Structures are given as structure tokens and as C-alpha cells.
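Bench notes, afternoon.
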Amino acid sequence: MKIISIKSMSPEKTIPLLETAVEREKNIIMDSLKTTREKVDALAKALAVDIDKLMKGEVQHTEANDMKLIELEGEVEILKHLESELKELESLEICE
């Protein structure tokens, strides 16, 4: 783990601002995760596909389902990205 330093003329004000900003960002990401998970679940159910198989390339794309499968793949990638960002934020420790 690396340490990142921030210089401030008034750390007593800066630290709470940073903590609030991190918490706000976590909440935004958690809301986005909820929405994205719901969309992934709905698309997977509507298409009757297993997400793991889809992401491994084991689901047959047809003319009828191609665009929806591509949309589902994109949403799964967004979900992974959001999960990664949340994990990173949760690992932050603001020290005085």
C-alpha cells in the first residue's frame, strides 16, 4: 500500500471534507451498482442467458438477440468497473 500526502493550511477542515467526499462517492457508486445489477438481471432474464457463459463467449449471438446481448455484455463490464472502484474507495484510509 502506498501513502499519498496532501498538504493543507487547515487540515482540521480538509480531513472532514475528504472523508465526506469519499463517502459521497461510495454512495454514488453503490446506487449505480444497484441500478446496473437490476439492469443486468433483467436483461439476463429476458434473454434467458447465463452471464458467466455469455462473458466466456459461450452464448450464441443471433440476428434476433445480438444487440441485446451486446448491451448485456456492456452492462456486465460496467458492473465490474463499478465494483472495482468501490473496492478501491473502501480500502482508503485518511490519516491525520
